[in-house]
Amino acid sequence: MDPRGEPRDEAVVRDGVRGILAPVRFGRALQLVLIALIVVSAIRYLLRHGEGENAIAIMAGAAVLAVMAVLQGVVPRRGAWPAVWTLAASTLWAVLTLVAPSFAWCAVPLAFAVLQILPFWPATTLVAAMTAVVIAAELRLAVQFDPTLVAGPIGIAFATIVAYRALDREARARQQLLDELTATQA
Questions:
Q1: pLDDT 10s digit of each residue in the chain, 186 long?
Q2: In 10 A of CB 148, how many CB atoms?
Q3: φ/ψ of residue 143, rounded to 5
Q4: How far is CA 25 from CA 19, 29, 170, in A?
Q5: Distance in angstroms (rounded) separating the CA atoms of residues 115 and 124
Q6: Helices (H) and strands (E) in the chain, counts
Q7: Which one of 11, 29, 32, 41 is CB 3.0 to 4.6 Å from 103, fit for a cystine?
Q8: How far apart are CA 126 and CA 160, in angstroms?
Q9: Crossing angle of helices 81-99/107-117, nearest 10°?
Q10: How far apart are CA 6 and CA 179, in angstroms?
Q11: Residue 16: what pLDDT?
Q12: How far apart are CA 72 and CA 100, in angstroms?
């Protein structure tokens, strides 16, 4: 309990912030979501298609993508490595998605990773390309044209970019305030 008799929220006590702005290990959470979706997509592929001709290649691709997702946290943040990781992971994901559209579900956490790693405009361009892959994969399976298969991915991509941009700007503003406070105290 705090001095006013209210329950203590450790995130609030530590940083004085509640809700969406409260401290979260966002990158780690998205990494776990990406890994989980890769595994579930691979399982779904096997359940739907069995051990057909593409199964070994799909499972190998899913395994490599999962390893890449695990390694995302240890990729150096400087030099060419972030861009290399991003392009390799996105390319492998695109191939998997075009062959096995279940992997389209991995697009959102992968898009957030892209937005975290690349500068904003190249990241936005890559997210747009990823959206086109999702649309192509879904339309390939559709018996007839369904406008939600186009509008849905575009809307989700737009919301992902806007949400990331808002979170990034808020984090930068908080960091600037902390830097100013530290400088003032010094």
A1: 444 444 444 444 344 555 544 455 667 888 899 999 999 999 999 998 888 778 899 999 999 999 999 988 777 777 788 889 999 999 999 999 999 999 999 999 999 888 888 888 898 999 999 999 999 999 988 888 888 888 888 898 888 888 888 887 887 888 888 888 888 887
A2: 10
A3: -70, -40
A4: 14, 6, 15
A5: 7
A6: 7, 0
A7: 41
A8: 13
A9: 160
A10: 30
A11: 53
A12: 23
Element containing residue 109 per DSSP (H, E): helix 107-117
H or E element at residue 139:
helix 120-141
Is residue 129 a contact partner of residue 121, using CB atoms and an 8 Å limit?
no
What's the CA gap between 133 and 180, in Å, rounded? 43
- Please tell me the predicted confidence (pLDDT) of residue 11: 42
Amino acid at 47: L
Question: pLDDT at position 63, please?
Answer: 96
Per-residue CA distances from 147 to 128, 135, 139, 154 (Å)? 18, 10, 10, 11
CA distance 128 to 106: 15
Token pair for residue 151? 């509008």
Nearest CA among 124, 179, 167 for reference residue 27: 167
Place of tokens 């936005």: 124
